């Protein structure tokens, strides 16, 4: 009895933990509250599959319980063998046809939705963005607008936005649960998908393919804004001038240090770069996709990025190889400079 009570307590505690953890998460990071066409279609497929599986489970369990009860060993009938159904053609046909029908019910809508979401008939007339997955961050190049950003992807509400995806290292997977399903991002072959947001907002994205030490920290955001705000944001990014002097003396000193030590990997205009593009760094709401957006966190990131995101590409930066090349004071100046890089008033905080 004590053993059973212990198991019941353990099960109760586990169930409570599952219940509590199921409430944890971020807004717009769920498939079950779709905010885009792709997510809506994916949810339909998930619902159909779940209903079919639930029905199969219930029917099988009912039959199982019935058989166990009806044909249990009874006192005085230890040697009685129930009637055997092996070779019964009717039963053989039933349990062969039913699974086929169930598979068809699941397969048909799945195939239709898969081909629908892979449709590229409107790609020439739509916004096209080249997405590059890296360890452990995302780069976005707006093909027609000739602008580049990292970590934050801006899109206009109600329009199809096509994403052409490649990886620069290992296999990643692009997933924004509230807007669409997953798509693998491979080093060798380009995959294409489109996303479409129904309403303004900030939608969190994840890498859904294990890709290294900081896979779980490879977050990004899609910011859906009105068409007018999107056009203004694009114009602001197109007119970024890296030679503009910051307002404060400390930030100016930070700019000079940045241009000596960091510009080799990062860009603050629309030129290609090995590391994340920092043109609109001051407009973001996170650092490295996961840290709070403030100068203290940024200084810690500059001085010791491995403690925040193990295995990230920043570890190869020359200033980290040559200890002391950038001091704490230098990092504070760089942080103040980067926080002033705000080319646009259209920020994630302004999205409704």
From TrEMBL:
<dbReference type="InterPro" id="IPR001505">
    <property type="entry name" value="Copper_CuA"/>
</dbReference>
<keyword id="KW-0186">Copper</keyword>
<dbReference type="InterPro" id="IPR009056">
    <property type="entry name" value="Cyt_c-like_dom"/>
</dbReference>
<dbReference type="InterPro" id="IPR034236">
    <property type="entry name" value="CuRO_CcO_Caa3_II"/>
</dbReference>
<feature type="transmembrane region" description="Helical">
    <location>
        <begin position="45"/>
        <end position="69"/>
    </location>
</feature>
<dbReference type="InterPro" id="IPR045187">
    <property type="entry name" value="CcO_II"/>
</dbReference>
<dbReference type="Pfam" id="PF02790">
    <property type="entry name" value="COX2_TM"/>
</dbReference>
<keyword id="KW-0813">Transport</keyword>
<dbReference type="Pfam" id="PF00116">
    <property type="entry name" value="COX2"/>
</dbReference>
<keyword id="KW-0349">Heme</keyword>
<dbReference type="InterPro" id="IPR002429">
    <property type="entry name" value="CcO_II-like_C"/>
</dbReference>
<feature type="domain" description="Cytochrome c">
    <location>
        <begin position="249"/>
        <end position="342"/>
    </location>
</feature>
<feature type="domain" description="Cytochrome oxidase subunit II copper A binding">
    <location>
        <begin position="124"/>
        <end position="236"/>
    </location>
</feature>
<keyword id="KW-0479">Metal-binding</keyword>
<dbReference type="InterPro" id="IPR011759">
    <property type="entry name" value="Cyt_c_oxidase_su2_TM_dom"/>
</dbReference>
<comment type="similarity">
    <text>Belongs to the cytochrome c oxidase subunit 2 family.</text>
</comment>
<feature type="transmembrane region" description="Helical">
    <location>
        <begin position="90"/>
        <end position="112"/>
    </location>
</feature>
<comment type="function">
    <text>Subunits I and II form the functional core of the enzyme complex. Electrons originating in cytochrome c are transferred via heme a and Cu(A) to the binuclear center formed by heme a3 and Cu(B).</text>
</comment>
<dbReference type="InterPro" id="IPR014222">
    <property type="entry name" value="Cyt_c_oxidase_su2"/>
</dbReference>
<keyword id="KW-0812">Transmembrane</keyword>
<dbReference type="InterPro" id="IPR036257">
    <property type="entry name" value="Cyt_c_oxidase_su2_TM_sf"/>
</dbReference>
<protein>
    <recommendedName>
        <fullName>Cytochrome c oxidase subunit 2</fullName>
        <ecNumber>7.1.1.9</ecNumber>
    </recommendedName>
</protein>
<dbReference type="InterPro" id="IPR008972">
    <property type="entry name" value="Cupredoxin"/>
</dbReference>
<feature type="domain" description="Cytochrome oxidase subunit II transmembrane region profile">
    <location>
        <begin position="23"/>
        <end position="121"/>
    </location>
</feature>
<dbReference type="Pfam" id="PF00034">
    <property type="entry name" value="Cytochrom_C"/>
</dbReference>
<keyword id="KW-0408">Iron</keyword>
<keyword id="KW-0249">Electron transport</keyword>
<keyword id="KW-0472">Membrane</keyword>
<keyword id="KW-1133">Transmembrane helix</keyword>
<keyword id="KW-1278">Translocase</keyword>
<keyword id="KW-0679">Respiratory chain</keyword>
<dbReference type="InterPro" id="IPR036909">
    <property type="entry name" value="Cyt_c-like_dom_sf"/>
</dbReference>
């Amino acid at each position: 009895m004590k053993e059973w009570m212990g198991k019941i307590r353990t099960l109760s505690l586990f169930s409570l933990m599952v219940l509590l953890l199921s409430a944890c998460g971020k807004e717009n990071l769920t498939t079950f509250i779709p905010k885009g066409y792709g997510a809506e279609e994916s949810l339909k497929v998930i619902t159909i599959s779940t209903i079919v599986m639930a029905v199969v489970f219930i029917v099988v369990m009912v039959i199982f319980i019935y058989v166990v009860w009806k044909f249990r060993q009874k006192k005085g009938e230890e040697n009685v063998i129930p009637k055997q159904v092996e070779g019964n053609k009717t039963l053989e046909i039933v349990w062969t046809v039913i699974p086929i029908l169930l598979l068809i019910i699941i397969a048909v809508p799945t195939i239709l939705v898969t081909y629908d979401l892979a449709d590229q008939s409107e790609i020439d007339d739509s916004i096209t963005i080249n997405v590059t997955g890296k360890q452990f961050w995302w780069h976005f190049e707006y093909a027609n607008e000739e602008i580049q950003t990292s970590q934050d992807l801006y899109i206009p509400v109600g329009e199809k936005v096509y994403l052409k995806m490649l990886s620069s290292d290992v296999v990643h997977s692009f997933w924004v649960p509230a807007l669409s399903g997953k798509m693998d991002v491979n080093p060798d072959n380009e995959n294409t998908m489109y996303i479409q947001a129904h309403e303004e907002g900030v939608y969190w994205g994840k890498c859904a393919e294990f890709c290294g030490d900081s896979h779980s920290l490879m977050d990004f955001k899609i910011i859906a804004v009105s068409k007018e705000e999107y056009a203004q944001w694009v114009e602001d990014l197109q007119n970024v001038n890296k030679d503009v002097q910051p307002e404060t003396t400390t930030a100016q000193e930070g700019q000079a240090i940045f241009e000596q030590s960091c510009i080799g990997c990062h860009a603050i205009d629309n030129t290609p770069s090995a590391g994340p593009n920092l043109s609109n760094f001051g407009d973001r709401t996170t650092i490295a996709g996961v840290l709070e957006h403030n100068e203290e966190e940024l200084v810690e990131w500059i001085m010791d990025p491995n403690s925040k995101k193990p295995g990230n590409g920043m570890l190869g930066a020359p200033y980290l190889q040559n200890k002391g090349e950038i001091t704490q004071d230098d990092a504070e100046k760089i942080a103040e400079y980067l926080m002033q890089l705000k080319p646009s008033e259209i920020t994630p905080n302004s999205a409704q």
